[in-house]
Design goal:
Helix content is about 45%, strand content about 10%. The chain is mainly alpha-helical. The structure holds zinc ion (ZN). Zinc ion binds next to α3 and α5.
Length: about 130
């Protein structure tokens, strides 16, 4: 594995993953998505997808790991206030935290692929189309 930049999470276990989360269910309804992963603090909450389905998509894992890094950088409240403010200002797709997480997915997916080929575009979890 070639490490491009220092990344603390490479040497950590994956965070706690919560299936059938009521918080993620609310986000899923709000986003109109089939499945959603949502970071709260150091945990990844899922709705509409199992832990296995989530872990099978290293792009998705890398995306959520970037949100965990953002939570650590800004704190729970700092993250949530910025996230909701920027959603109102820019729309979901253009929230800076989401833009950064999409970039992290492309950059870091190989780190979470466990030696398997990366999934194709059709196999990847789609970005919600919410406004
Ligand atoms: Zn995201």
């Amino acid at each position: 594995m070639r490490i491009i930049r220092p990344n603390f999470y490479l040497i950590m276990e994956l965070p706690r993953i919560v299936e059938n989360s009521p918080f993620a269910r609310l986000a899923r309804l709000k986003l109109g998505a089939t499945s959603v992963a949502m970071v709260l603090g150091r945990s990844i909450h899922l709705s509409g997808a199992s832990k296995e389905q989530f872990l099978r998509d290293p792009f998705w894992v890398a995306h959520e790991m970037e949100h965990i890094r953002q939570f650590e950088q800004y704190g729970r409240l700092g993250f949530l206030v910025r996230y909701l403010r920027d959603w109102a200002r820019h729309g979901y797709y253009n929230i800076p935290f989401e833009v950064a997480a999409r970039e992290a997915a492309e950059r870091d997916a190989h780190l979470y692929a466990a030696g398997l080929p990366l999934p194709s575009a059709a196999e990847r979890h789609p970005t919600p189309k919410a406004k």
